[in-house]
Amino acid sequence: MFTRGLKRKCVGHEEDMEGALAGLKTVSSYSLQRQSLLDMSLVKLQLCHMLVEPNLCRSVLIANTVRQIQEEMTQDGTWRSVTPQEAGRAPLDRLVSTEILCRSAWEQEGARPAPGLGDGHVQGPVSDLCPVTSAQAPRHPQSGIWELDSPREDRGGFHKSLDQIFETLETKNPGCMEELFSDVDSPYYDLDTVLTGMVGGARPGPCEGLEGLAPATPGPSSSCKSDLGELDHVVEILVET
Amino acid sequence: EHGGRGGGGEAGSDSHPFPSCCPLPADIISTVEFNHTGELLATGDKGGRVVIFQREPESKNAPHSQGEYDVYSTFQSHEPEFDYLKSLEIEEKINKIKWLPQQNAAHSLLSTNDKTIKLWKITERDKRPEGYNLKDEEGKLKDLSTVTSLQVPVLKPMDLMVEVSPRRIFANGHTYHINSISVNSDCETYMSADDLRINLWHLAITDRSFNIVDIKPANMEDLTEVITASEFHPHHCNLFVYSSSKGSLRLCDMRAAALCDKHSKLFEEPEDPSNRSFFSEIISSVSDVKFSHSGRYMLTRDYLTVKVWDLNMEARPIETYQVHDYLRSKLCSLYENDCIFDKFECAWNGSDSVIMTGAYNNFFRMFDRNTKRDVTLEASRESSKPRAVLKPRRVCVGGKRRRDDISVDSLDFTKKILHTAWHPAENIIAIAATNNLYIFQDKVNSEMH
């Protein structure tokens, strides 16, 4: 649980060995909490753009939070690029998640990118993140976050799940379109509550507390609003693309 | 069926077939607004409907129906639309309703969803002409040979009919989602604000609007702040305020420039370094801003507090009230379940002496600016019978716990009171609790703790 101030204990102030160890523990638990907050934020941003048009205010606030964490981690020196060989918590996935942050299809303006833009290369995202800690041209970690219509040469690293979405839309036959749209129509809460383990309990989140949280009320979705005629029309557009 | 909209002091309606824990999404009330006299109360819901309540005049014949609100009119304001270019749905949810000052027998209001604003005219018909020469009672043309004399049609009373018609549709003005609309005191113009831009419209012109604020950065990668709410000054037709997700307020003067990107005044409270956390910015985001009736003050709501600002002092608010400070230690969990992004509204009473805002667990809070007393009340069927006095509630945060206290961990975060409204003159308040509308009237000055 994040407490006020989020100040780290300075290890140097502890006098005895036990104290020093305790200090170290505090530091690492803070780092863990901070990391899990970062992960949580990235997932939130990732989920955003898969559904209906994202709430821009919420997205901006989450992105700013991510930026703050990244800045602090950069100052700590704990923000570094990770080689694919590193084991543990699949850090590459996390970096790839960050790539979504950088490349996500916000769709605030302009059309979607042509499907198949990304090659899905894994090297792309990793190499793009290196400059964050390098001495040269410090690139903003949030580049390209808000819109996709400014083409950039280094966009080869399109996240694979984003690619999958576009592939799906292209290759699925019209019969499956309703399923896709019914997903889109479900209230956002469903995914988020699943994520935070509120529905069906039991998944331990990174934060404790608030035991009394009642499950969100996903209720029956107020019906797939697009009627069949509109769906047919959309299918036509996508197929032509 | 509107699943739970009731009139008068009674809460909700028992005819809703669904249990109250699972309201139909379309019935969720998304905005509440009294008109300028308080005679009418409009609500908008997630399904795009508007329901207008009218206050019954107090009559000696029925002393118990002391000015209670009954349904006056219901209409479908917005329908869901589909944006083919982006392959995204445009929700029909009514984000805001604002009444126009009444200028003739008809009432007019503006209602908006994320993209389109509509001007609705509400008229009453309680008379009907009868005795036409050429038409019979069903409206069919008479056989002319049967018409032997001339008569003057007479207006005869009929059952009251309330007719609603869309007079203007202000479309295609916004790329981003509209969060506010505000009618100017000149009664000719109004503004609409989305996340990044504010437009000025003339009420009679739908094919054109003027952009008066634009905070969209040249490079969208640089976007770090959005507009969260905006309002015209109640008396000065050239002044308006808008709030941001970073907790700042900007007062703008339309006389200064066509594009009001430069504020006349910037109201911002310096951050408290001892309270700093990764959530500081999020909880400082202003979810609502309201000018006082006097026009001298502004009221803002952020996640944990309501603040009163004096227009003459930009450095800090003159008053800060804690709405639910016990949530400060729970911010991480509230971030996880997205509650930290809930946008609560706030309201002034008619004399600007009391301010009100909603909270969780169907609680709402009132703060008396003069006595500095505050009270927590609950809007729920269980705790309020018609004409019963609301019992103050208390959230206990450890320490001595009284019998009816509720602990922080037992709060129901799905029951949030985001939308509240106060009658412009009297102590009557409208509280929207998910899909139920509660109207509370104060007959005697209630005590505040």
Distinctive features:
heterodimer; A: 241 residues; mainly alpha; 0% strand; B: 449 residues; mainly beta; four-stranded antiparallel sheet; 2 helices; 2% helix; disordered C terminus
What's this entry about, in short?
By secondary structure, chain A is mainly alpha-helical. Helices cover 49% and strands 0% of the residues of chain A.
Structural class of chain B: mainly beta
Radius of gyration of chain A: 21 Å
Q: Trace the largest sheet of chain B across and list its strands.
A: 1-2-3-4
Distance between the termini of chain B: 38 Å
What is the number of E strands of chain B? 31
Most extensive chain contact? A-B, 70 and 60 residues
Q: Report the count of strand segments of chain A.
A: 0
Number of helices of chain B: 2
Give the terminus-to-terminus CA distance of chain A. Answer: 48 Å
Describe the oligomeric state of these chains in a short phrase.
heterodimer
Radius of gyration of chain B: 24 Å
Protein structure class of chain A: mainly alpha
Largest sheet of chain B: 4 strands, antiparallel
Instruction: Assess the beta-strand content of chain A as a share of residues.
Output: under 5%
Q: Give the low-pLDDT segments of chain B.
A: 1-20, 445-449
Can you give the mean pLDDT of chain B?
A: 90
Shape of chain A: globular
Q: Give the low-confidence spans of chain A.
A: 9-15, 81-228
Anisotropy-based shape of chain B: globular
Specify the helix fraction band of chain A. Answer: 40-55%
* Annotation field: number of helices of chain A: 8
Care to describe what's here?
Chain A is mainly alpha-helical. Chain A has a domain at 38-76. Chain A contains 8 helices and no strands. Chain A has helices spanning 17-48, 56-76, 91-103, 123-129, 160-171, 174-185, 188-196, 228-240. In chain A, helix 1 (17-48) packs antiparallel against helix 2 (56-76) and helix 3 (91-103) packs across helix 4 (123-129). The longest helix of chain A has 32 residues, at 17-48. Chain A starts with 16 loop residues before the first helix and ends with a helix. Chain B is mainly β. Chain B has a 4-stranded antiparallel beta sheet, with no helix packed on it. In chain B, strands 7-8-9-10 form a 4-stranded antiparallel beta sheet, with no helix packed on it. A 4-stranded antiparallel beta sheet of chain B has the order 11-12-13-14, with no helix packed on it. Residues 1-20 and 445-449 of chain B have low confidence and may be disordered. At the A-B interface, helix 1, helix 2, helix 7 and helix 8 of A face helix 2 of B.
